[in-house]
Specification:
heterodimer, A: mainly beta, seven-stranded mixed beta sheet, four-stranded antiparallel beta sheet, globular, B: about 120 residues, about 0% helix
Chain lengths: ~110, ~120
Amino acid sequence: DTEVTQTPKHLVMGMTNKKSLKCEQHMGHRAMYWYKQKAKKPPELMFVYSYEKLSINESVPSRFSPECPNSSLLNLHLHALQPEDSALYLCASSQDLATYEQYFGPGTRLTVT
Amino acid sequence: AQKITQTQPGMFVQEKEAVTLDCTYDTSDQSYGLFWYKQPSSGEMIFLIYQGSYDEQNATEGRYSLNFQKARKSANLVISASQLGDSAMYFCAMRGGGSGGGADGLTFGKGTHLIIQP
């Protein structure tokens, strides 16, 4: 099973809302990642978790708050977002940080109104 | 810092022809990995093929092969016998050793939009 799942598939939220994106994998991977992809652009790394600890934060604004409650689950909490935060949010996982191959989920399409 | 360059924003190819998608990279890492991903309009990033910097043989996965020329820092993707379902965005990506000794996230090129025509 090489599946990474993400929920919801689509999300529309207002600028004052609080919402969360969820990512789950059951491959026993210990590294998980959040990427942001704007339309017609490549994905950009946001956060890296390794063994449930935040390893990399690529200078992401505090309105994005990641959380890794256990080795299978990665959340991205959203609060007070701006319309320019509308994008496809992709989650990925790898066996660990030393393993290069990453498996991606289908993404959540976020629209901020 | 790592950089990936894909110089073909879009390509039109006739069905059943072979396709070569170009990718060059720049890195100061000795150990790194190179990837190709396919992204259909649905958005999912589908892993196609991987080449490690120390691998002496070019990687192959079914109809996909990676033409790795280390001295030229190029990692072109070759798709043999293209199919209509190959129409998608294709990203070349790299992952290096990282300054902290562990690998970082992926660095992507800008992508090539491939359209296969019947």
